[in-house]
């Protein structure tokens, strides 16, 4: 992450766009604004975007529909902006691949912290190997996780698209093979946030990750649930 990161703010409320643009610009970010999904796509074609702040409740094509469409071809980090108390929207957004979410009215200091955390995960997903070391890889089943290139590939060489958070989770598990990790450890090490016992984000993200790597996501054999504790990565 650096001070020249470009953030795309997509919200149909002009006051909100201007408020976020003013606040984040003063903190060193480049800001591009969009009022709807069509403008968002146009901005993505015109500019290299590092992160999107995407409102859910927009007229016309809403934020969730936009996110679903976006994730078919683009893995740019997305932080969703949701109406206060809309738990269902948050869950659906995470299942579709959002990297984080914030409830409106937005606390600007929390917004800045969340944005920096997501950009930090994107820029530095894992510790880089020191000079002279072989690239760190973690083969499992039909896949190989390249911890240096931040890529997951099939045995045929095809890349499996992962969000920054999904890669962080998978690399965390790969580096702790055979070790049970509780939700607190996972959130602290892969999500830059302390555990809220009512926060389902980790369970949702692991469920989404399983759909990409497990032969049968309903009966996971790679990332297994340890009831009452957390999860274990045991591909063998």
Automatic annotation (TrEMBL):
Domain OmpR/PhoB-type: 135-235
Gene Ontology CC entries for this record: cytosol; protein-DNA complex
GO molecular function: phosphorelay response regulator activity; transcription cis-regulatory region binding
Subcellular location: Cytoplasm
SUPFAM superfamilies according to UniProt: C-terminal effector domain of the bipartite response regulators, CheY-like
Gene3D superfamilies attached to this UniProt entry: 3.40.50.2300, 6.10.250.690, Winged helix-like DNA-binding domain superfamily/Winged helix DNA-binding domain
InterPro entries: CheY-like_superfamily, OmpR/PhoB-type_DNA-bd, Sig_transdc_resp-reg_C-effctor, Sig_transdc_resp-reg_receiver, WalR-like, WH-like_DNA-bd_sf
GO biological process: regulation of DNA-templated transcription
Chief place of localization: cytoplasm
Chain residues forming the annotated DNA-binding region: 135-235
Modified residues (4-aspartylphosphate): 55
Keywords on record: Cytoplasm, DNA-binding, Phosphoprotein, Transcription, Transcription regulation, Two-component regulatory system
Pfam family, one: Response_reg
Domain Response regulatory: residue ranges: 6-119
Listed name of the protein: Regulatory protein VirG
Gene for this chain: ompR_1
């Amino acid at each position: 992450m650096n001070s020249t990161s470009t953030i795309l703010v997509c919200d149909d409320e002009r006051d909100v766009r201007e408020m976020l643009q003013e606040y984040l610009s003063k903190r060193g970010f480049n800001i591009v604004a969009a009022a709807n999904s069509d403008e968002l796509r146009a901005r993505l074609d015109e500019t290299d975007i590092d992160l999107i702040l995407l409102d859910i409740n927009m007229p016309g094509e809403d934020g969730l529909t936009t996110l679903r469409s976006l994730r078919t071809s683009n893995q740019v980090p997305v932080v969703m902006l949701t109406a206060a108390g809309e738990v269902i929207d948050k869950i659906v957004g995470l299942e579709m691949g959002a990297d984080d979410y914030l409830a409106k009215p937005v606390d600007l200091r929390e917004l800045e912290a969340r944005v920096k955390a997501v950009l930090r995960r994107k820029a530095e997903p894992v510790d880089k190997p020191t000079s002279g070391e072989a690239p760190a890889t973690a083969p499992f089943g039909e896949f190989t996780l390249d911890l240096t290139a931040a890529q997951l590939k099939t045995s045929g060489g095809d890349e499996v698209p992962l969000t920054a958070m999904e890669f962080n989770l998978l690399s965390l598990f790969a580096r702790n093979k055979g070790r049970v990790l509780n939700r607190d450890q996972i959130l602290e090490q892969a999500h830059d946030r302390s555990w809220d016992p009512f926060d389902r984000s980790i369970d949702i993200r692991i469920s989404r990750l399983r759909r990409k790597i497990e032969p049968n996501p309903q009966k996971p054999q790679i990332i297994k649930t340890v009831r009452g504790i957390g999860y274990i990565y045991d591909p063998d």
